[in-house]
Design brief:
With about 240 residues, this protein is of the alpha+beta class. It is about 15% helix and about 35% strand. It is globular, with a radius of gyration of 21 Å. It starts with about 35 loop residues before the first strand and ends with a helix.
Length: about 240
């Protein structure tokens, strides 16, 4: 995954070491409940983003909310999302200024929290919510770099070990970028919060950890003999 960054993004999407390493809390990024679980520092936000590769993209279409799952990649303080040039949100992001107002969320479930009472059941999680305006990427160099970042975000090292997109494929692929400006992370850890009067109840209480795992790579049926799984796959 991309290395966590520690400063805000310049015009080209690079990091500026002079910038503060914390996103400013705002009206849309301060939770109305459990605000103590919120975090805004770059290390926390970026580590959560870098630990996943599927986000949910929310936007308004024809006056109604739409939420779509899609792949993403982070480069500095920018997220890149891709899809077909016929995709509605990607077309809307490139039609005209000011772009497409979106909300992007990423969530990891780390544990099932089982309390003695049904009310206090919960989950341990890490999540990031990003508000902002998405714009379609039209610069060829930025688009190529963004697509490489998307591939490497899913499997680090894969972009250099695959054929780059050709002219026809690039023309059929749209990429949108979203600057990380209005951003917040939220995290829950620990065990159940049972009420004192429930501690003597005869019900099991605790946490069931949830951990994603990778299986052994399965070669395709038409893979040429002698091509072994590369080290970056074995390291997953």
């Amino acid at each position: 995954m991309p290395e966590p960054a520690s400063a805000t993004t310049t015009e080209a999407g690079a990091e500026s070491p002079e910038s503060p390493a914390t996103y400013a809390p705002g009206e849309r990024t301060v939770p109305t409940r459990s605000a103590n679980r919120a975090a805004y520092d770059h290390d926390t936000v970026h580590s959560i983003l870098d630990a996943g590769y599927v986000c949910h993209l929310g936007f308004v279409r024809d006056g109604a909310p739409v939420v779509l799952p899609t792949l993403y990649g982070r480069v500095g303080n920018r997220l890149y999302l891709h899809g077909s040039t016929g995709s509605r949100p990607l077309r809307m992001a490139g039609e005209k200024d000011p772009g497409l107002a979106v909300c992007v969320t990423v969530t990891h479930v780390d544990g099932l929290v089982l309390a003695r009472s049904a009310f206090h059941h919960s989950i341990n999680y890490r999540s990031v919510v990003v508000h902002g305006t998405a714009h379609q990427v039209t610069d060829p160099e930025e688009k190529t770099a963004a697509l490489d970042a998307l591939v490497d975000h899913v499997v680090p090292g894969r972009a250099a070990d695959s054929r780059p997109g050709n002219t026809k494929e690039l023309a059929a692929t749209a990429v949108i970028r979203l600057d990380l400006t209005e951003v917040s992370a939220k995290i829950r850890t620990g065990g159940p919060n049972d009420d004192p009067e429930d501690l003597s109840l005869p019900h099991w209480s605790g946490v069931v950890p949830v951990t994603p795992t990778y299986g052994a790579p399965i070669p395709s049926d038409d893979l040429a003999p002698g091509i072994a799984a590369p080290a970056y796959l074995q390291n997953l």
